[in-house]
Amino acid sequence: MALQRWRLICVLAVISLFHGFCNSDKAPDYTFLHDAVLAPPVSFHDYIVIGGGTSGCPLAATLSQGATVLVLERGGSPYGNGNIENIANFDANIAATGPDSPSQQFVSEDGVLNTRARVLGGGSALNAGFYTRASKDYVKEAGWDEKLVEESYEWVESKVAFKPPVQGWQSAVRDGLIEAGVTPDNGFTYEHLLGTKIGGTIFDSSGHRHTAANLLEYAQPENTAVYLFATVHKVLFSTVGERRPRAYGVIFEDKAGRMHGAYLRKKAGNEIIVSAGAMGSPQVLMLSGIGPMQHLKNHGLEVLLDQPMVGQGMADNPMNALFVPTRKPVEVSLIEVVGITSFGSYIETASGSGFGYQMGRPGMLPPPVSGFMNVSLAGGLILEKIMGPISKGHLELRTINPKDNPSVTFNYFKEPEDLRRCVQGMKTIIDVLNSQAMSSFRYNGLPVDALISMMVSSPVNLRPRHLTTAISLEQFCIDTVMTIWHYHGGCQVGRVVDSDYKVIGVDSLRVVDGSTFSASPGTNPQATVMMLGRYMGQKILQGRASN
Ligand SMILES: Cc1cc2nc3c(=O)[nH]c(=O)nc-3n(C[C@H](O)[C@H](O)[C@H](O)COP(=O)(O)OP(=O)(O)OC[C@H]3O[C@@H](n4cnc5c(N)ncnc54)[C@H](O)[C@@H]3O)c2cc1C
Hints:
Layout: H1 2-15, E1 33-35, E2 42-45, E3 47-50, H2 56-63, E4 69-72, H3 82-85, H4 90-95, E5 103-107, E6 113-117, E7 130-131, H5 136-142, H6 146-160, H7 168-179, E8 185-188, E9 195-198, E10 200-201, E11 224-228, E12 231-238, E13 246-253, E14 259-264, E15 271-274, H8 277-287, E16 290-291, H9 293-298, E17 305-306, E18 312-314, E19 318-325, E20 337-340, E21 345-351, E22 379-386, E23 393-396, E24 407-409, H10 416-433, H11 436-439, H12 448-456, H13 473-479, E25 482-483, E26 509-511, H14 526-545
Helix pairs in contact: 2-14, 6-14, 7-10, 10-13
The structure holds flavin-adenine dinucleotide.
């Protein structure tokens, strides 16, 4: 128990480095937002969006411009929730447990602690806020219409993206990155450019979070219905008289345990769109009978379509980090700066106090559990995340209860190239630490080796440590890997959905969210996830008009 608690505390401590400060603003006056207990037993719509998350909200807001839309979100509202709105409560938000908490924690089979969203706004209501676009190459490879991509990013940015304050610690890391050769200095930009830059954030200048739920401000209220605490159990299909199975409705459960049916109006072009995220979308497809036949049968599910690719290609970009105690106070900061290296490793940083990580005292590691939460921190975390990743895993159902987490394996560093990128990223972090720019923050008596040992002693995950963990950067990467929560896959384009995001083998069903990605876009994905929601909403309406 004590060890488990210590592990949780350590993970929270790392997470808490994404802290900030803030106050609150007024929630939008949405007339269409209701608890699902108020939903009628049966209703009819042009589009049904499963999941009101980072992609689901912009998608629904866009579709409502030309049709009626129902959004079914299993979580509650982010508005008025101080844990969500206030960056200072970032760790409390993630750590909160309970059947309705916005964060639903899980541990991957790799032994890495993780979390997924369960709230309107999805991951954008939990995340560290960094906002940055995908590279031009990523957009090209995705086969997206570049003009529409640009317009869609701008549509998102005019509501939820801001320029961060860049103070002492963040400036020093930026200068250290430039000294370490991560050049040029690209200043402030949302673009994905080699070199060092300041990116955007979804926290405004007073530290208040703007989530994807704010994109519903664009919605046509008379065309929109959003039900909260509405857990979708399955998509329904008609097979009789159809060329192939056609989605026509969904069954969802409200908080009181009552089941409701929501159905598509009989009109060409009407569709169900799954936007339940990388953990939720493959799960919903499997629960609806689309997935690997034997696996579905093992769970007693009726097989609609044997689709072995559902749940495949799950990936989570590994994150490794060093914590740097500082000899002078640092500002509370989220991720503001990123170094985009030529070898596919991205360096980011956060700093602050209040997470009680007693790592600033050499010789005291690991910190004692007693009094742990009362110690304030002076220091920062410098982390590296690799692009891609190339290593892939898979997702399986544990149960057929849609509220339960599926089991997921990410296979961190299975592919040697991922490990090489991590090692190069860690070497760059070491160069940054040894830069002139960082010298005024560093303790003279705390060399990089001590910082590495400190991290090795910290149970930031449930993985074993080895004799060589502190002396081999390869082993360090493998043993101290954490998540930066950019997991994706499970319903990938070309495998589960086609290039129009239509589920292959059935009609009137699409998936639009991070589960469709084969690689995480940009250095951090949320900008592109929101963009994709807007982009696909536009594409779907265009298709409808030409029907
Ligand atoms: C702690 C954390 C920090 C992060 N930091 C950053 C960052 O700084 N910058 C960045 O760019 N990215 C960050 N990310 C990643 C980013 O937030 C995600 O990649 C993104 O939010 C995923 O969007 P999505 O639409 O695919 O899924 P989600 O946003 O998770 O949306 C899925 C929605 O579907 C709902 N749902 C699932 N199943 C069902 C069901 N059966 N019935 C009804 N509803 C259902 C969920 O409740 C959820 O609201 C972070 C993520 C986390 C968790």
